[in-house]
Design goal:
Spore Coat Polysaccharide Biosynthesis Protein SpsA, Chain A; alpha/beta; seven-stranded mixed sheet; 10 helices
Length: 299
């Protein structure tokens, strides 16, 4: 499908996992609501979308994730308390959260296969056939250090190349490629994708460039998701859907990105990401550095 759009304003954010690597912390709260300093992981993802021109956000959740809906709504008792205490900055902060975007919530139903591609089927009625949209994993964060948000960079590349899909990629150490989907390019100097394979050992991996949770899709991707059978571990993978499209001659791109992908997918990486965000805050950097130095000298 040719893409006639000049602006993309919808994002689908996936927050339907169980967060089992963080049990028992995630027994009664979504992993996406764990804090990075003073904001939940998901808040940062929504901010990135909004700063990239997104106005409508579709959050795909599961049973028990009502805390997500509560977070992006008003809490009038708290607001009244902050107002009576004259804590105006904090009052403005919490009142602004529901105004970040237009939020819609979709429960991923149990009849769908497990996997990061299944939400595409869950939201198909909410995307017009002429629409393109951003697709984001709620446990992946990014840092751009003065560059436009990674989502905005992907949107711009997607529109420029008239693609059916744009994929965020980043190089990782070869020892880690078996954790991710690795990308093979059609041309060594281009950005068009020939294929993506999930979780291969480094001896078999296409490259050490791996996809992470930032995509831009046309409606063709939703159509193909409905046709694609579950693959590795009986899951429906985004990579399998994109492979099908690429093999049909549709343009799937993985353009170069300025910025850094920071995952929170397991406790170690979550802690590393938390520290990185703290070190980039003027009010915390020196205190955190002093703490790390002191701890290192005492250990």
């Amino acid at each position: 499908m040719e893409n006639p759009q000049t602006q993309i304003t919808k994002a689908v954010i996936i927050a339907a996992g169980f967060g089992t690597r963080f049990l028992p912390a995630t027994k009664n709260q979504p992993k996406e609501m764990l804090p990075i300093i003073d904001k939940p992981i998901l808040h940062y993802v929504v901010e990135e979308a909004v700063n990239s021109g997104i106005r409508d956000i579709i959050l795909v959740t599961r049973f028990g994730n009502h805390l997500i809906e509560d977070y992006f709504d008003n809490r009038y008792e708290l607001e009244a308390q902050l107002e009576s205490s004259r804590k105006t900055k904090r009052l403005e902060m919490v009142r602004n959260i529901p105004q970040m975007a237009n939020f819609v919530y979709v429960r991923q139903k149990g009849h769908l296969p497990y996997g990061n591609g299944s939400p595409l089927i869950a939201i198909k009625e909410l995307i017009d056939e002429n629409d393109s949209f951003v697709y984001m994993f709620a446990d992946d964060l990014t840092w751009c250090n003065g560059f436009p948000p990674i989502t905005k960079q992907l949107i711009d590349a997607y529109l420029e190349h008239n693609a059916v899909a744009a994929v965020g990629v980043q190089e990782v150490p070869w020892e880690e490629v078996d954790r991710y989907g690795t990308v093979k390019y059609k041309d060594e100097n281009g950005c068009e994708v020939e294929g993506i394979m999930e979780k291969l050992p480094k001896e078999e991996a296409y490259s050490n460039k791996v996809q992470f949770g930032r995509f831009v899709f046309s409606y063709d991707v939703i159509r193909k998701a409905e046709e694609t059978k579950p693959g590795k571990d009986n899951e429906l993978w985004v990579s399998d859907i994109l492979n099908e499209l690429a093999h049909e001659g549709k343009k799937v791109i993985a353009p170069p990105i300025k910025g850094e992908w920071l995952t929170t997918g397991d406790p170690l990486r979550y802690l590393k990401t938390s520290i990185k965000f703290a070190l980039r805050r003027d009010d915390l950097r020196e205190k955190i550095l002093d703490f790390i130095k002191n701890e290192a000298s005492e250990s």
